[in-house]
Amino acid sequence: MSVERTLVIIKPDAVSRELIGDILLRFEHAGFHIIAMKMIRIGRQEAEMFYEEHRGKPFFPALTEMLAGEPIIPVVLSCENAIAKARELIGATDPALAAEGTIRHDFALDKSHNSVHGSDSPASAAREIPFFFGEAEICHSREVLR
Ligand code: IDP
Ligand code: MG
Q: Which positions does UniProt annotate for ATP binding (predicted)?
């Protein structure tokens, strides 16, 4: 295993319910280092680009509408095995099926409002991190394991 970067997004349903701190705490307590973070809004077209792999699926219009226009928090996290580890901490897509103690089990409302995004593979992380952050916005010095 090696040190990896992954992209997490705190989605609008969690931002609007004041869960930013709770969710970041889960990652910090699990040993992730936050190496980049911002609060932004993106447009519909950007949301469609971000979720390109889901274009054509029945939930695609609602999904991109959910992500667009509202504040979201993209975060780059770093630690050993960060991609799989973050997915484990986040839990299953449908919070009704997510394991106890996972972020989605504890905070998500339903499959359409599941509070957090996490990159699902090294290829996804490599595409998703530059979608939100330039290299200059990433704090490399914090990547070294403490
Ligand atoms: P993931 O976020 O766990 O990786 P994906 O299958 O990549 O799940 O789907 C992306 C997002 O699309 C999910 O997080 C969820 O918000 C939404 N989504 C996925 N499947 C459904 C569905 O069947 N109904 C409604 N929304 C869905
Ligand atoms: Mg996914």
A: 11, 59, 87, 93, 104, 114
Q: What's the pLDDT tens digit per position in 108-122?
A: 999 999 999 999 999
Give 80-90 pLDDT, tens digit per residue: 999 999 999 99
Domains along the chain with CATH numbers: 3-42+72-143 (3.30.70.141)
Amino acid (one-letter) located at 20: I
Probe residue for ligand 1, chosen from 89, 109, 112 as the CB with the greatest number of ligand atoms within 8 Å: 112
**Helix ranges, 36-115 (H):** 44-50, 60-67, 82-90, 103-107
* 56 contacts: CB under 8 Å, gap ≥ 6: none
Return the SS3 of 134: coil
Reported pTM: 0.97
Strands, sheet with 3-10, edge to edge from the N-terminal-most edge strand: 33-37, 73-80, 3-10, 116-118
Question: Which strand (E) or helix (H) includes residue 123?
Answer: helix 122-132
Q: Which of 10, 11, 93 to mutate to test the pocket of ligand 1 (most atoms within 8 A of CB)?
A: 93
